[in-house]
Amino acid sequence: MAVYTHSVYVDPERCTGCTNCLRRCPVEAIRIRQEKAVINALKCIDCGECIRACKHNAKRASYDKLSDLDFSKHLIALPAPSLFGQFNHLDEAEYVINGLLEMGFKEVYEVARAAEYVTDLTRIYLNSPKAKKPAISSACPVIVRLIKLRFPTLCDQLVPILPPYELAGKLARERALREHPELSPDDIKTVFISPCPAKVSWAKSIMDGQTVHVDYVTSMNDVYMELLKKMKRDEDCNGNVVSEAGIVGMSWATTSGEAASLMNEGYLAADGIDNVIKVLDDLESGTLSEINFVELNACSPGCVGGVLAPTNGFIARLRLQNLRKSSGMVVKPNDIADIEKGDRLKGGVIPPEYIESDAFTYMPEGAPNMLAMMLAMKKADALAEKLPKKDCGACGSPTCKAFALDVVNGDAQLSDCVLRSQMEG
Ligand code: SF4
Ligand code: SF4
């Protein structure tokens, strides 16, 4: 059985136990133990909110460093559409592509191009009788994991199509094998340039029966610094490389881009993890039945706001708008007939199954059943009534209610509540 591998981690040397991250975690995955933050791997969705919250740089993301990549291999760069929003006054996408080739990548396959295939596949899926509405995009891995763990009744509404970065890896590898018969499959490695830690986790967590098409995931921050040295804006590189992506794929970098590209009026697009959770609550209670498609992004305003991207997400969004205008980007049509008959694109499109299906039940050890969980919750509710209800975080749990459940589950001592001890004293 495979285990989910997280990108987000705590550097205990830097952690001061200040509790800033404790209350920002949307799934209450963090506790402070012995004055250090600890992440519950079963609950964490790799949203990166704690990285944003930590002023001491103690919350970090692991990913493949550029220096660890073997550039003697046939490395294919897979730049996320958000990468193109990082540069001031960028008027042609080709400068970025050329810069990646200058860095030593042998090829570039734009994730935006794969996103255009996902758009067409989703349109076909939404028109098919098997689509369960409202269908929920499976492009953001934070949302997929959140649904799997906390909203399991919505799982069958996730669109069963590979996210663009995975499809890009698959298509890039197939193209390289076709065009370079001298290469063996092991010579070809795909490298996704990611704006967020969740996509690192996705690629590193190979679930049973799943094929991952991305070999390495590196940080957009690191690539950006190298690209700045390599991009030659004073030279006309249009003759050497041509961007294959159109306006539809590039629009995926910001919220509503994916949903609007479907040209289906009944859609809802939301971003920011707290807003997303509210929408999922509504979806679970069935109050959004008039909607066909839901696009949810953990980051605001979409992937451009990921914690591994160097530029403020709102500025990056503006830069992308300018790039689309200045480069005269158009819709690049796909060969729909090829997609419709092409199982090549549809193969292996199911999001991975996570093993921690009971992560949110937080059951006591040795009692892995619903009844035991309900009893624990009931006990915790009763205990929470006797707590000060200040949600101060001094006990190391994010709220009094979470602390009560920790005590019931044997993960904390009642005496850890400083205020209660004072009240009793
Ligand atoms: S924000 Fe969290 S990880 Fe950062 S120092 Fe404070 S307790 Fe530690
Ligand atoms: S990455 Fe998100 S879910 Fe994981 S511990 Fe940090 S805030 Fe919580």
List the helices and strands and how they pair.
Elements: E1 8-10, E2 30-33, E3 36-39, H1 49-53, E4 59-61, E5 74-79, H2 94-103, E6 107-108, H3 111-126, E7 135-136, H4 141-150, H5 164-179, E8 188-194, H6 197-204, E9 216-219, H7 220-230, H8 247-251, H9 257-261, E10 267-271, H10 273-285, E11 293-297, H11 313-326, H12 336-341, H13 343-346, H14 370-385, H15 400-408, H16 418-424
Parallel strand pairs: 5-6, 5-8, 7-11, 8-9, 10-11
Antiparallel strand pairs: 1-4, 2-3
One iron/sulfur cluster (SF4) is lined by residues 8, 25, 27, 29-30, 39, 44-50.
Index terms:
globular, Alpha-Beta Plaits, binds iron/sulfur cluster, 425 residues, 3-methyladenine DNA Glycosylase II, Chain A, domain 3, Rossmann fold, four-stranded parallel beta sheet, three-stranded parallel beta sheet
Short description:
With 425 residues, the chain is an alpha/beta fold. The protein has helices at 49-53, 94-103, 111-126, 141-150, 164-179, 197-204, 220-230, 247-251, 257-261, 273-285, 313-326, 336-341, 343-346, 370-385, 400-408, 418-424, and strands at residues 8-10, 30-33, 36-39, 59-61, 74-79, 107-108, 135-136, 188-194, 216-219, 267-271, 293-297.
